[in-house]
Design goal:
By secondary structure, this protein is α+β, with helices and mostly antiparallel strands. It contains 13 helices and 20 strands. A hairpin with a 2-residue loop joins strand 7 and strand 8. Its cofactor is FAD.
Length: 451
């Protein structure tokens, strides 16, 4: 007989684990299973070496509009509140200065306008600082820079650096305290089929049935969605991020201004969450025909999602022909080459720390994951947001940045959707959820009302 549950969550990264925590602790759903194909949770993109360990609030990310920043801010505060409540010893996170750096008259003017056009009001702790204060906080950012060059930074003193892998484990541990929860690691889903009462998942450990399901398996989420007939107008542009390491250059996080039209994060530098003497620079953004970094077996999965049809090829051609994106993509391919890569990447590092020499940086071997950037084949364009497909009693989450930062907000939203799926059979105590998360965030100006 197959194992049967009210809810099955596929994917044991930060997205699936945050939903498991939310549904296990704050709903009365009677039986929940988390299925993860790896032997441990958080083994792929949520592992701390495979992402930029940033909790995005929207204050220093200059690719965010004010509206986007407002949305991301609430999500980040939910997770920050959870960390404040659960991680007093700072094993999962650290708090350090963060800033976005403007160098030269044009960039300084952009930051001044950004601050004045609502960001200063939205983030009361964000403040513009000049060369002298930048030097006090991040001496290496100013050292060796032309004294005649105009400088400005928007800085927040208490940014969060997060080990999303350990946070994922914490969510799972909290949820596992409930008798309603089963954790099935080392269990790969091979197919999913709809049934009159929900879904049947064929797995490496046998059949699992559920009344409702949420697939939070990163790039593989779209693959499963297409298997069930959803998301036929979407394909993936998998982007692999890499990093370079240096010794003890920064005290906190220093971002550079985002180039317009690029969905990829601007290169930034930050001190590692567990070892502040190690400074990480990146990420690079290399296009790869695979759903997971370094796993040739997922090339066929990519082709499965891509579809090898005219709409997919035309969409790729349209996107990559862009006069800004194409040079960027080609340049990032060079960064991974053994001999010339570090030399070509060096100017990106020097934009943050001018005195860095080639011998000071080295490729971070084994670092970096794959972000599933969504492509709309009808519009032949990149979908810059987080992708969510809602079907009949099933949700598919395909989460590019800032999916980890907003994982609890996304979990809250999905939990409401699940309550609709169950048609009033179960309830969600959102007030208690907020009390355990954002209610512990010390810098929220005022509580966000329950919806």
């Amino acid at each position: 007989m197959p194992d049967t549950y009210d809810l099955v969550i596929v994917g044991g990264g930060i997205s699936g684990a945050s939903l498991l925590y939310t549904t296990a602790k704050f709903t009365d759903i009677e039986s929940i299973a988390l299925i993860e194909k790896e032997p441990e949770v958080a083994a792929i993109n949520s592992h701390h070496t495979n992402n930029s360990q940033t909790l995005h609030f929207g204050d220093i990310e200059t690719n965010y509009t004010l509206e986007k920043a407002e949305e991301v801010k609430e999500g980040a505060e939910l997770l920050a509140g959870y960390l404040e409540n659960q991680d007093a010893d700072r094993e999962m996170h650290a708090k350090r200065s963060k800033m976005v750096l403007g160098v030269g008259d044009e960039e300084v003017e952009k930051l001044e306008q950004r601050y004045e056009n609502g960001f200063g009001d939205l983030f009361p702790k964000l403040r513009p600082i000049g060369r002298d204060e930048i030097a006090e906080i991040e001496p290496k950012v100013v050292e060796g820079r032309d004294p005649g060059t105009e400088m400005l930074a928007l800085q927040t003193p208490d940014g969060y650096v997060v080990d999303y892998g350990e946070t994922t484990e914490s969510f799972v541990e909290e949820a596992s305290e409930e008798t309603t929860v089963d954790i099935k690691t080392g269990t790969a889903v091979t197919s999913v089929e709809p049934t009159p009462d929900g879904y049947t998942f064929e797995t490496s450990a046998g059949e699992i049935e559920s009344q409702a399901a949420v697939v939070a398996a990163g790039s593989h989420s779209l693959q499963m969605a297409k298997e069930l007939g959803y998301g036929q107008n979407k394909v993936l542009l998998p982007v692999a991020g890499s990093f370079f390491l240096a010794d003890d250059l920064l005290n906190g996080k220093v971002y550079t201004l985002q180039m317009k039209k690029l969905p990829f994060a601007a290169v930034h530098g930050d001190a590692d969450v567990h070892d502040p003497s190690v400074t990480r620079f990146g990420p690079t953004a290399k296009l790869v025909p695979a759903l997971e970094r370094g796993r040739v077996s997922t090339v066929s999965d990519f082709l499965d999602v891509f579809g090898l049809n005219a709409a997919s090829f035309l969409s790729y051609a349209t996107i990559l022909a862009d006069r800004i994106l194409l040079p960027y993509v080609l340049r990032n391919l060079v960064y991974d080459l053994p001999a010339v890569g570090p030399k070509q990447f060096l100017p990106n590092v020097r934009k943050v720390v001018p005195s860095v020499e080639l011998d000071d940086i080295e490729r971070a071997k084994g670092y970096g994951g794959v972000r599933p950037q969504i492509v709309d084949t009808e519009k032949r364009s990149l979908d810059m947001g987080e992708a969510k497909i809602v079907g009949k009693d099933i949700v598919f989450n395909i989460t590019p940045s800032p999916g980890a930062s907003t994982c609890l907000k996304n979990a809250m939203r999905d939990t409401h959707t699940l309550m609709d799926f169950f048609d009033g059979e179960y309830s969600f105590d959102e007030e208690a959820f907020r009390e355990e998360t954002i209610g512990n965030f010390p810098y929220a100006e005022e509580p966000v009302p329950a919806k």
